[in-house]
Write a structure and sequence with these properties.
By secondary structure, this protein is of the alpha+beta class. The chain contains five helices and three strands, in the order H-H-H-E-H-E-E-H. The chain has helices spanning 3-23, 40-48, 50-59, 78-98, 122-127, and strands spanning 62-64, 107-112, 115-121. The chain is globular. The protein starts with a helix and ends with a helix. The model has no long low-confidence stretch (mean pLDDT 95).
Length: 128
């Protein structure tokens, strides 16, 4: 059995739980539980886009935050965030199914310019 086949049930469970959480995000996007916290709407939108990070891990050798352009999804409604999650999850499922076992041991790197945040096998990046 391939590594990707073994990981698919975990991905499905995580997407199910994340979807339920996003469905319950209140329309108070500016709510912050603490003055130093990020607003709830921004956090929820970030979570909805996390499948995109998984796709990056599976399909590229690295990610440099200093050279990669990222456009955050604005918070409009819980339904909109669920839609973004579902679309990203579908693409991630396809990328996972297409990942050969040999790719899991290839090097992967996360950086911010010269600062290396993570460097190791793709499988370890996926698990983080």
């Amino acid at each position: 059995m391939s590594v990707s086949t073994l990981l698919l049930p975990e991905l499905e469970q995580e997407m199910k739980v994340t979807r339920i959480m996003l469905e319950r995000v209140p329309m108070k996007a500016d709510f912050v539980p603490h003055p130093k916290s990020t607003p709830l709407g921004k956090l929820a939108a970030h979570v909805a886009q996390l499948p995109g990070f998984g796709i990056t891990i599976l399909t590229t050798p690295s990610l440099d935050f200093m050279t990669t352009k990222f456009t955050p999804v604005p918070f409009e409604s819980p339904q909109q965030l669920v839609k973004a999650l579902d679309e990203g999850a579908a693409k991630l499922r396809n990328a996972l199914k297409s990942t050969a076992d040999s790719a899991w041991t290839e090097p992967w790197k996360l950086s911010a310019g010269d600062k290396v945040l993570f460097e190791g096998e793709r499988f370890l990046a996926w698990q983080k």
